[in-house]
Amino acid sequence: MAPVEFVQENQSLSMAQGTIRGLHFQSEPFAQGKLVRCVEGAIFDVAVDLRHGSPTYGQWAGATLTAQDCNQLWIPSGFAHGFCTLVPQTVVAYKVTAYYSRENDLGLAWDDPDVNVAWPDVADPTKLSAKDQVQPRLADLPSYFEVAN
Questions:
Q1: For residues 117 and 115, what is the distance between their CA atoms, to the nearest angstrom?
Q2: Could you tell me the pTM of the whole model?
Q3: Looking at the 3D structure of the chain, how many domains does it have?
Q4: Paired strand residues for 125
Q5: CATH number, domain at 15?
Q6: Residue-number span of the structural domain to which 53 is assigned
Q7: Confidence (pLDDT) at 149
């Protein structure tokens, strides 16, 4: 694996339990790998494979990240990322391998039935941002990422 270079670190605060953020990604040439950790509170963190040709295309993986456990999740370029806060006043920090680009900032519907993420019971769709309320389904996304043969 090639060395990873982080160019930016971001932090978000969610005041309410059940806040859903994502599923987000950036397209080339600003595609991002993310190293995610929870510095206060707890989250259920999710990555969805968007790489056409991948044997895991459209599948998701999730992990609970907590400030107490000090664990992290690496999300490679070509994956959408999102999370749900498990407790109030949760702070998430994530380092990224490419700078933010508004033109390349994209998303996937958090509740796409074809992806079928098993969000925790506390997930509250009324706490979605306006941006996250209108993200497309996987079937409607162009092919932003390809796996080389």
A1: 6
A2: 0.94
A3: 1
A4: none
A5: 2.60.120.10
A6: 8-115
A7: 63
Selection from 72, 67, 91 nearest residue 11 by Cα: 91
Residue 69, domain member (yes or no): yes
Q: Per-residue pLDDT tens for 88-136?
A: 999 999 999 999 999 999 999 999 999 999 999 999 999 999 999 999 9
Residue 148 reports pLDDT greater than 90: no
The reply to whether 24 belongs to the active site is yes
97 touches 28 (CB < 8 A)? no
* Residue tagged active-site, from 94, 99, 100, 144: 94
| φ, ψ at 131 (rounded to 5°) | -60, -45
Judge whether residue 1 has pLDDT over 70.
no
Q: Kindly state the tokens that stand for 130.
A: 């306006």
Amino acid at 15: M
Q: What is the 3-state secondary structure (H, E, C) of the chain?
A: CCCCCCCEEEEEEECCCCCEEEEEEECCCCCCCEEEEEEECEEEEEEEECEECCCCCCCEEEEEEECCCCCEEEECCCEEEEEEECCCCEEEEEEECCCCCHHHEEECCCCCCCCCCCCCCCCCHHHCCHHHHCCCCHHHCCCCEECCC
The verdict on whether 144 is a catalytic residue reads no
